[in-house]
Design a protein that fits this description.
alpha+beta; Immunoglobulin-like; Cytosolic phospholipase A2 catalytic domain; twelve-stranded mixed sheet; five-stranded antiparallel sheet; 37% helix; disordered N terminus
Length: 649
């Protein structure tokens, strides 16, 4: 009985193997005949289904929509010439050809029109509703909207007080480090030398000393407060003062954004951020809503795109940057220059990943000086990121993107692809039938799409006739999402000329901390990109400890990896009775952090933590760092000797 019911449902709802293709109506509204054909796009394989169909000018034609095919997009391709619609297309050809997704959610009616000599395709919804609205907007802009915007530009503080409101920005070519970063790092190394010598107990040649980078994972508020604990532990043992770079992703970026913005000592910053974590980001007051609205209007005044990430980032800023009062949405990443100018603080690097549907790689990095990506090979001043650029030069004077927007971008875990979201809960679906229906009707159709993303103008738009440079806007999302992974290793890996860490301290506070999966992904990234990285031995749940060290005895170019997953190891509890550790006992002993993450209040998407929960996470992280001090210091001393010996030989 169940088998027949299941078969009937699949017939009705759309099994890829049972349902025949349905018909699409193609309306050619141009004055020229147009050829159309349907294709399967499987990424590297793009193949035509059937033969091209001629749609005469000012007429319509019917064409079959191909059956669903797992992990494959169905596309309509159109051109003036049927020879363009070859049986198979290369990825390079696909980037240049005109095409339109024809999945079920796109409907069954499409319109082809010509604008300035080029063909464009619209769904019925786009043509009948969105296009008229767009046309109305364009016609109303000069009469109503533009005068209003000019008034706003004169009154809004973010615009009126923009220190770069008269500055034209230029795109910088090449992957060499920004000269200001080189200077800051040089000054930081001089200070780190003194701290390192004290920590390891031997003299160090500044030119040969290892570059230490702390690489912190995502994990929402859990990662934010745990990062504070790890940094406090590192500070107490002299490691933080020996660190050159702090690389952050998602929740750990919220730590650095807030800490560098306030400038508070870590011991005062911890209670400050714990108080804020106890303050829900929603609901908000009328005054807070007014501040958020003003921040969004600033972007609209320059025609910049606004997505849910803008609202989310503003909500985060309302809480995490509340120390700045009414100016909380006028705090900027470039403000952090004052923390690093003379080498007082480690150099911070924030991360995000590409969020276009077809993106397979590409990390963005954000520093107080510039924003860009090694895979692009071009960078823009941080204060100008988000402006409109044409051929490498900014064409407006928009103010810098707010730090709130940046926090929303860095920590936009909810911007996951539909397939990623489904993977997180599919095991909780009790019915095989329901799972199969979801996979065929939702995941297969829109699995590669994201619920939302951060969006800004493309600063390399028009520089070259390549696909990425052709994009008017670029999309970004949390680095922990695909195609990224939850450790921001790439930005200190050595891919950038002059920025390679010799000692990488991975702070893993993500779900992957319980099985080491993120560390394997870092190794996979290194191997795929030809980067030196130690061999990561298999780690099981039973063998995972609070500190794992990986190194290469023979090759000094291979960095030391110190992996610190946020777990609670009972084997370390004996240390709680030693001098200097008693303060951790109420928080560490009997705290099951894995259960708190899986079933308690330590979830990645939980944005309201009680003070005790925050203290447990932070104190556990601090304890784990200090409890492993001896082996961490020993391996740093070993790496220092290895580098000095290598240079001497």
């Amino acid at each position: 009985m169940m088998r027949s019911v299941r078969l009937s449902l699949l017939l009705v709802l759309g099994s890829s193997s049972l349902v025949r293709a349905d018909l699409l109506t193609i309306n050619n509204l141009t004055q020229t005949d147009v050829w159309v054909a349907t294709y399967y796009n499987e990424g590297t394989t793009i193949s035509r289904v059937g033969k091209p169909v001629l749609v005469l000018k000012q007429s319509s034609a019917a064409i079959e929509r191909p059956k669903r095919k797992l992990w494959c997009n169905r596309e309509l391709v159109f051109d003036y010439h049927d020879t363009v619609l070859a049986p198979t297309l290369t990825e390079a050809r696909w980037r240049d050809i005109k095409h339109k997704n024809i999945g079920l959610l796109s409907g069954d009616t499409f319109f082809i029109v010509k604008n300035e000599g080029e063909l464009f395709s619209y769904t019925s919804l786009e043509w009948n509703y969105l296009e008229p609205l767009k046309q109305w907007f364009n016609e109303s802009y000069s009469v109503v909207i533009e005068p209003l915007i000019q008034t706003l530009k004169e009154d809004l503080p973010a615009i009126a007080n923009n220190p770069h409101k008269d500055h034209i920005a230029l795109v910088r070519d090449g992957n060499d480090l920004h000269p200001a970063e080189k200077l800051c790092v040089s000054r930081r190394r001089a200070k780190a030398k003194v701290a390192m010598e004290k920590m390891i107990g031997v003299s160090v040649d500044q030119e040969r000393m290892p570059t230490i980078a702390i690489v912190a994972s995502g994990g929402g508020y859990r990662a934010m407060i745990s990062t504070v604990g790890y940094l406090l532990g590192a500070e107490r043992m002299g490691l933080l003062d020996s660190t050159i770079y702090l690389s952050a992703l998602s929740g750990s970026t919220w730590t650095l954004c807030s800490w560098y913005a306030t400038g508070l000592p870590l011991k005062l910053f911890r209670p400050n951020i714990i108080d804020k974590m106890n303050d829900p980001i929603f609901p908000i007051s009328g005054e807070d809503m007014a501040l958020i609205t003003e921040a969004i209007v600033v972007k609209l005044a320059f025609g910049q795109p606004v997505t849910l990430v803008d609202v989310y980032g503003a909500l985060l800023a309302n809480v995490l940057l509340s120390d700045f009062g009414d100016n909380r949405h006028r705090v900027y990443l470039s403000d952090q220059v004052k923390r690093i100018r003379h080498g007082e603080w480690p150099f911070p690097i924030y991360t995000a990943i590409r969020a276009e549907e077809d993106a397979t790689d590409g990390w963005y990095e954000f520093t107080p000086f510039e924003v860009g990506g090694q895979w692009i090979g071009r960078y823009v001043p941080t204060w100008a990121f988000g402006r409109k650029f044409v051929e490498g030069t900014s064409v407006d004077y928009a103010p810098e993107q707010s730090l709130g927007f940046q926090m929303g971008t860095f920590g936009s875990a909810f911007a996951a692809r539909v397939s990623e979201i489904y993977d997180t809960f599919k095991d909780d679906i009790p019915s095989d039938l329901v799972r199969e229906l979801i996979e065929q009707l939702v995941v297969e159709e829109i699995g590669n799409k994201r619920l939302t993303y951060a969006e800004v103008f493309n600063y390399v738009h028009g520089l070259y006739r390549e696909r990425f440079e052709d994009l008017e806007k670029i999309r970004m999302a949390d680095g922990g999402l695909q195609p990224g992974f939850n450790l921001p290793y790439p930005v200190v890996s050595g891919e950038r000329n002059g920025r390679k860490a010799d000692v990488m301290i991975f702070l893993d506070m993500s779900w992957g901390a319980f099985d080491g999966s993120n560390l394997y992904k870092a190794e996979e990234y290194a191997r795929a990109h030809g980067l030196k990285f130690p061999t990561i031995a298999a780690v099981s749940d039973s063998s995972l400890s609070t500190c794992k060290i990986f190194k290469d005895e023979h090759d000094p170019e291979v960095p030391v990896v110190i992996y610190l997953p946020l777990i609670n190891d009972k084997a370390l509890w004996s240390k709680l009775n030693e001098p200097g550790f008693a303060e951790f006992m109420p928080y560490v002993q009997n705290f099951d952090v894995k259960e708190c993450v899986e079933f308690g209040d330590c979830g990645t998407f939980d944005l309201h933590y009680e003070a005790h929960e925050s203290n447990q996470l932070s104190k556990l992280a601090e304890f784990n760092m200090l409890a492993n001090k001896e082996q961490i210091v020993d391996v740093i001393a070993w790496k220092t000797a290895q580098l000095q010996t290598a240079v001497a030989s």
